[in-house]
Amino acid sequence: MNGEEVLHAYEKMLLIRLMEERISVLYKGDTIPGFVHTSIGQEACAVGALTHARVSDVITSTHRGHGHVLAKGLEPDRMMAELMGKATGANNGRGGSMHVADPRLGIFGANGIVGAGLPIAVGAAFAARERGDGDLVIAFFGDGAIATGAFHEAMNLAALWKLPIIFLCENNGFSEFSATADQHPVPISARAAGYGMESITLPGNDIEAVSDGIGPVFEQVRAGNGPVFVEVETLRVHGHYEGDPQVYRDKEEMARDVYAADPLTLTRGRLVERGISSAAIEAVEKRVKATVDNAEQFARASPQPERSTVMDYIYSPRRSVDSRVVADPDGEVISQSKIIKQALDDALSADPDVFLAGIDVAGGNVFGLTRGLAVRYPGRVLDTPISESAIMGLAIGAAMAGRRPVVELMYLDFLGVCLDQLMNQAAKLRFMTGGAVSLPLVVRTQFGSGRSSGGQHSQSLEALLAHIPGLTVVMPSSGADAYGLLRAAIEDDNPVMFIEHRLLYEKKSAIPGEGFRVPIGKAAVTKPGKDVTIVSWSRMAMHALAAAEELAAEGIDAEVIDLRTIAPLDRETILGSFQRTNRMVIAQEAVVDFGVGAEIAAMAVDSGFWSLDAPIVRVGAQYSPAPYAPVLEREWEAGPGDIVAAVRRVMSC
């Protein structure tokens, strides 16, 4: 770096330092709500690493991310306003200190979950590689993230696919309140060797060493040579969070380290050695202080978000569906699994931004459902390792970068191993960025009891997913709905959980035609009736129709509603039917307790109270894991007979 470059870097570092010091003061004065984690002492890491970055390069960051986003170009006034929760903030006051983002500058977000940005960085890097314009991703993370599963899965997938990503670990010596030396059995940089990944270690408080050392890494990664692991050894001056008393650190030792390794002091000394005049340095310092003062003034003067906007930015607007296109009743009669495959085939053909990824999907998946698509669409149907968090992060990062991923979670039961990426990332990123991004992604998965699959392969977990604002949950029953809903989900600009029932895969019906779509959030009345409403979804919708046929022989005219979409819930259709029949039975495959049926029942006795002529009865599995023995599983799960019994009960009232 020449003198002018060092001076420019000093200005950026000083901006971060003075902003962080001002933020610390404002936080103590209760001007900034929420948690705050400052990066004082680590300024050279962010500025040095991003010296070589393009605006179109992407970064993912950490809960200690102020320095990263400022170094990437975020305006100080917008960041300060965001921390104060103001409407003029970078994210309209929806993100706050731990979630600052600006995708237009390639800032895909700081993150309140340790290590969670790493799988998202992999998705962004995949999208960058496919664009082929030489962009790359810098994934910032702390030494504590090395111990997370997300770190392993992201490193492994990035190395396997040779993605353009720099994994940049800021090793500041502490993982929250614990010394790094007490957290890891091997040196941090040694981890890279396990993935066949090159690694370098740089002195993170020396701006020239960081910038000069990482420059060749940028060139190497841009050239398509795969990811590189960079460790920068640095210093955390303040505690894990603002207000942390740091009782776990030796005060005298810390004071010595801060004095000896302060990157601002070191850089200012270099400027003097390079012959940069005091006047030039002081002009920079005056300019930066004015910038920080202006940022504070701007944020203080900015308005609070309007209360009426509290529900903004949760979902992207839904695309309208042409209701004039109806299913072709004369279409070829094939199995539901083949109908789903055709929907995927048609989506891949229609939009080059669509791609499929997941465990064994290129070979056809565990049910052979995607067989042949990898040959037909080279490079767009991708096998991944058994890394569910990385798969979900791949989808999130790629969707933020403009692709339309369809990823597969082999079994719904495996949700637990990747729930963070769905619950805290996919569901919240549009909201926490103040609507700056859309996440057009689909997670296909399947479930189903009835085949002795046991407690870890039979669960119906839609209630868990439906309880997460920002996610859309779809569960088709018929072949036509499976096609129409899957095509609509892929074209939707929101994260959609598309849950198939494996025991319906071989049920045959007519394929509805390429133009057929089913609107998300709209239930279907699959059988009109006047005596009782049966609300159901997925395979239970088929059981409900069978039960209605049996009840008809007894003179009971049941109306059957197939929800098709669990979230958002079509309350209007349910309540409209209830108003006509005045009785309701809710049938779900999941355990009865705390389920979707409970939400519908609560709605019926609240909004539909004046329609209530009998108790609302729920039908479902007993409150137990799914048994393995067939005789026990049949006793545990619900079927058409249970629905019939429940209807008889409400009709007797």
TrEMBL record:
E.C. code: 2.3.1.61
Needed co-factor(s): thiamine diphosphate
Pfam families for the chain: E1_dh, Transket_pyr, Transketolase_C
InterPro entries per the UniProt record, alphabetical: DH_E1, THDP-binding, Transketo_C/PFOR_II, Transketolase-like_Pyr-bd, Transketolase_C
Domain called Transketolase-like pyrimidine-binding: residue spans: 334-507
SMART domains in the record: Transket_pyr
UniProt KW keywords: Oxidoreductase, Thiamine pyrophosphate, Tricarboxylic acid cycle
Class of this enzyme: transferase
Reaction equations catalysed: N(6)-[(R)-lipoyl]-L-lysyl-[protein] + 2-oxoglutarate + H(+) = N(6)-[(R)-S(8)-succinyldihydrolipoyl]-L-lysyl-[protein] + CO2
Domain of life: Bacteria
Name used for this protein in its record: dihydrolipoyllysine-residue succinyltransferase
